[in-house]
Design goal:
Protein name (chain B): Proteasome assembly chaperone 2
Family (chain B): Belongs to the PSMG2 family.
Subunit structure (chain B): Forms a heterodimer with PSMG1. The PSMG1-PSMG2 heterodimer interacts directly with the PSMA5 and PSMA7 proteasome alpha subunits.
CATH class of chain A: Alpha Beta
Number of helices of chain B: 5
Oligomer: heterodimer
Order of helices and strands of chain A: EEEHEEEHEEEEHEHHH
Distance between the termini of chain A: 41 Å
Largest sheet of chain A: 8 strands, mixed
Shape of chain A: globular
CATH superfamily of chain B: PAC-like subunit
Subcellular location (chain B): Nucleus
Structural class of chain A: alpha/beta
Largest interface: A-B, 36 and 35 residues
GO cellular component, one term (chain B): nucleus
CATH superfamily of chain A: PAC-like subunit
CATH class of chain B: Alpha Beta
Amino acid sequence: REISVLWTLKPGAPWQSSAEEVFVCSKFILAIGHNAAAFLSCFILDSVCWEVVGVVKLWNEWCRTTNTTNVLPTDSFCLFYRLISDPTVLLCQCSCYVAEDQQFQWLEKVFGCMQKEDLQVTILSTCPLADYKTQESTLTLLSPFLKALKTKEFKEPVCCPLLEQPNIVRDLPAAVLSYCQVWQIPAVLYQCYTDVIKLDTVTIEAFKPLLSSKILKSLVKDVSESTKNLKKLLTTNETHNNIYI
Amino acid sequence: LLQPAVSVGNVGQLAIDLVISTLNMTKVGYFYTDCLVPMVGNNPYATAEENSVELSINAEVYSLPSKKLVVLQIRSPFIKNKYRPFSQALISWVESSKYARVILLSSSHAYQRNDEQLLGTPLRYLLTPDLEKAVGGLMQELNWKEMEKVAAYPGINDKEKVLHIPGGGITKRLFTESCSKGIQMAVLLKFCSEGDNIPDAFILVNYLNEWLQLIKSEVSTSNNSTDASSQWKIPSSWRLLFGNGLPPALF
């Protein structure tokens, strides 16, 4: 149940389990789940401006992380990327499920290597629509939709309505947000409620309002490339959906 | 210090929600631990748009200085194998913070009661020896019933009696630890089953109120008994406990 976090922070350096010194991080963008990770792949990440600097290896009853860094959107993986032009910007795609007894380890090993002054955290994640509690029935809701939760220190405007009580957030997004609330790090979680379990372009596009937020605005890729990536995603997935044709 | 045990029906936790909500207690800190499943949400005791935005996590501490009361609320279950570390962390926090008394609200499986326990009140109390000296007499006055010990080996040897709190989570562990460490702890528990435990929470919190007098209980003239149920404020987070609204097309 032990998870290992390996970093290669200097170019050409070997993978090691803890950074020799803490690295300065001003922005940490974390995408949890396949759709959130795919959103970052389509709209933010590319092989030119970003380099892989970290990887998490874990195993639990739900998944085992793959061994390569050349991942497909449907794989289970957890990779960290750093913006080459500004090494204090860290991005993480975590599409593997981190079990409840591993979440604290993940937090300690990831945040333990960061210098947390002036750090701002943005978390993207998805959640089944059926979990959303509301007076009306969930059938009448237009999905997917975004809801946000923020820590006390987060003062920027949020891109969507806040998550109302009695709704709660669980798992890794909750663990990260709790950590940020307790240690007074400004952080915001954007949770997308969707009725599609697998990788889905409509769900991915639901995150689009975030592209105008202060943190992501400067990191957005060229729009034409994004649409190309989305289309590519569509085709790689649809081969699996042809089973009934 | 008032706190719940994560136990059957979550009655202790519901009762604590009522205490925090009614007394309008202020959040003063977090009990940050790796022993509880993480969860976050917006302020569960929000009364208006303005105060609904504060983020809450799975274990938080509230206080009411006027009544010298500190409350710990626990909102999620324990992670496997973390019962003992949590109990130890809690006890050492109690000792280092020098709380005069600790009151644990808990519950136990109703179906595990023996024949005598099926009759009469479903509420029980337990006091550590150090607290017994201080308030044992008061318990007699209130006519409260102490939790009975049960036979360790029923049917074989009825002489050896042990304390048994099925469904109580860490209740027994905390109680026995407190006894050995000289902490003044009281356990107030109710026999109940899983289901709609809101009435159980009201009963438990009224039981607590008989002792601590946290809120004034009005004497109801119709049946001449004190019934403070209407005085407790239900938190806004208790909405929709049993699911969403129904789709209109269902009918």
